[in-house]
Write a structure and sequence with these properties.
Layout: H1 3-13, H2 20-41, H3 50-62, H4 73-105, H5 109-125, H6 127-134, H7 140-150, H8 155-183, H9 191-222
Helix pairs in contact: 2-3, 2-4, 2-7, 3-8, 3-9, 4-7, 4-8, 5-6, 5-7, 6-8
Length: 223
């Protein structure tokens, strides 16, 4: 193996789990399923970049098949849906069996805050609507699935709602990325700014929820 190949291998092994481009370059389509499964099914996956991963994968599907990093749109859609749906169902089952003990013992502030927001969303919108909406909220989509199991949300209600939300989330973001990549020439030049915008937009709902929660607490204190 030449020095160039060795250097390329070392760079390839240096995977940044927070970077959608790095994950896709390292693991390809299979990585999409694994990352979404971890983010939506395992509480330890709350930091993974689900939104930007889906959108970036869609962009990479739009390029020429001869371009480096090109992905197949049908396989990306299948991998994304499979990972998201299987992950949510796994999170629900884990929540029913071991969720209360884990939430009681965890020291992660983000997980505890996510659990509080997820519980508020379940109470405010009802089970079905909350499970669908949670797909579009980072951290909340990680915590809500096991929390639904802890709160004994009916299995049929959870399954139907998470399938609907999971398909809208995964297919919608992948096709949005694909549509942009197909309509804008050399869109890969603007990939980093686009991903930054996606991350900011995905955090807006969380910011709004925090503001509402703070205002509600202040109102309660005043009362």
């Amino acid at each position: 193996m030449t020095l160039a190949h060795q250097a390329a291998s070392q760079v390839h092994l240096a995977v940044n789990l927070l970077d959608a481009q790095s994950l896709l370059a390292s693991f390809g389509t299979l990585g999409i399923a694994v990352v979404l499964f971890a983010e939506t099914g395992l509480l330890i996956g709350f930091f993974l970049p689900g939104d930007s991963l889906l959108f970036t994968a869609g962009l990479l599907c739009a390029g020429s098949a001869t371009q480096p990093g090109h992905l197949s749109l049908p396989w990306v859609l299948v991998a994304a849906a499979a990972g998201a749906l299987a992950g949510a169902q796994t999170g629900y089952l884990l929540g029913r069996k071991a969720g209360p003990a884990f939430l009681a013992s965890t020291k992660s502030r983000k997980i505890k805050e996510g659990a509080d927001r997820a519980g508020d969303i379940l109470h405010r919108y009802g089970h079905g609507k909350a499970i669908v909406l949670a797909r579009f909220l980072p951290i909340v989509r990680t915590v809500l699935n096991p929390l639904a199991g802890i709160l004994a949300v009916p299995a049929r209600t959870f399954a139907l709602s998470q399938i609907l939300g999971g398909l809208v989330w995964t297919v919608g973001l992948v096709l949005a990325g694909y549509g942009l990549g197909a309509s804008v020439p050399d869109v890969d030049r603007y990939l980093l700014p686009i991903i930054a915008v996606i991350v900011v937009v995905s955090l807006v709902p969380i910011g709004l929820e925090l503001i509402r929660s703070r205002q509600a607490r202040q109102t309660g204190d005043s009362a």
